[in-house]
Design brief:
Layout: H1 2-31, H2 39-46, H3 50-56, H4 60-74, H5 89-106, H6 108-118, H7 122-131, H8 133-143, H9 149-158, H10 161-170, H11 175-187
Helix pairs in contact: 1-2, 1-4, 1-6, 4-7, 5-11, 6-7, 9-11
């Protein structure tokens, strides 16, 4: 019986260490970005030795997968199926773009760093495609139903993080005003 207790306590300690490592990496990804985050930096931030980090995450990819999983568990991407219930195309667009912009607003620092790094960092691009690709494709499919090619191009622009950032953070539009403006732009 004592052996089981010891193993349970050890497993809990290992899980805690793993969680600290992943949270340290997410924090660094949110501030300097995944492309500039080194495993040494993660170990230091988590308060562990590098060999401890490698015991939990043998390579950068396994750590990146754990980071993206934690981030999306904390705040999942909006699900496009919820927008199918809107018969009116304008209402559907406003609901969808609004949900996406709200997510961008809650995750601005991390999303900005990750999307910036995905342009030039192969691992970040791979993880983005894996974690975000299917959901973003669903956004385009549901919101793009019945749109012509120019409208779909505007939808692509409307659903982009950098569009949200330009409208809300840089131009100072209220989020609802940015949503309304992009829905109008998509519909032409």
């Amino acid at each position: 019986m004592a052996r089981t207790y010891t193993l349970k306590r050890r497993a809990e300690k290992q899980a805690g260490t793993r969680q600290r490592i992943v949270e340290a990496a997410v924090d660094l990804h949110s501030t300097i970005g995944p492309a500039f985050t080194t495993l040494s930096m993660v170990a230091e931030r988590a308060g562990v030795q590098r060999h401890t980090l490698y015991a939990h995450f043998p390579d950068e990819r396994s750590l990146a997968l754990a980071c993206s999983a934690l981030s999306l568990d904390r705040d999942p991407l909006p699900e496009a199926e919820a927008w199918r219930g809107f018969e009116d195309r304008g209402a559907r667009l406003r609901a969808g773009i609004g949900a996406v912009y709200a997510w961008f607003g809650r995750n601005a620092d991390l999303a900005g760093c990750v999307l910036r790094d995905a342009e030039s960092h192969a691992l970040t691009r791979e993880i983005m495609a894996l974690r975000f690709g299917p959901t973003v494709a669903a956004w385009h499919a549901v919101l793009g139903e019945g749109l012509d090619p120019p409208q779909r191009a505007m939808l692509h622009l409307a659903l982009g993080y950098f569009t949200w950032r330009a409208l809300v953070r840089e131009a100072g539009l209220a989020e609802d005003a940015a949503v309304a403006a992009m829905a109008r732009a998509v519909l032409g």
